[in-house]
Amino acid sequence: MGAVKNHFFSDMSVMLGRSMRHVFRSLDTIITVTITPIAMMLLFVYVFGGAIQTGTDHYVNYLLPGILLIAIASGIAYTAYRLFIDVQQGLFERFHSMPIARSTVLWGHVLTSLVSNAISVVVIILVALIMGFRSPAGVLAWLAVAGILAFFTLALTWVAAIAGLSAKSVDGAGAFSYPIIFLPFISSAFVPTGSMPAGVRAFAENQPVTSIVNAIRALLSNQPVGNEIWIALAWCLGITLVAYLVAMRIYKQRV
Fold it and tell me: What membrane topology is annotated for this entry (predicted)?
């Protein structure tokens, strides 16, 4: 049993290394993922921030959680793209002709998504610090934020895997991310939901991004999190489980 586990993890590390080399050889993917959210953060803080009432002295503190989720939603589109390319080039079949654990080919892409999106998140937080972002949160709160962001990334990555494995074209592989990127705009990411019309407010308060943003914002501001963190984790867990099962089923059918 131990030998099987070691075989699995060694195969997965090889697949992760392969995918990460693709990322570092084309750093434009990470740059593209970070530039747009940073530009949005600059725009909202320095152009619109003075007109938006959020009850905070520094709008960047209020805005940052939503910007991080937009960056992750943008980043997972590249996971779908890389999976689509591997499928189209028949690389999965080539890998499966070798004595490796089959699922590690897919897991390599998933772990690469976690690492590359973590890099983008760190870069955006550094820029936010230059813009005046400050947090009284302690180490445990920051670890909780990191955990929520990683869980959110994992959930969306499995959604990306479905798109990458089932798409018929390159454009189709990445198009699924557009509605996800749009979700933070109809949430508490940019303005409090109380300022929205009743119908929009009902949707905003009952979609996953709002609970995730609220939980991260409360942790970073050292405020009581309440039930928001459990709702956020429940959303992430539910999306992950459903997307994982669907992605693995499609993966087995394709290969």
Answer: Multi-pass membrane protein
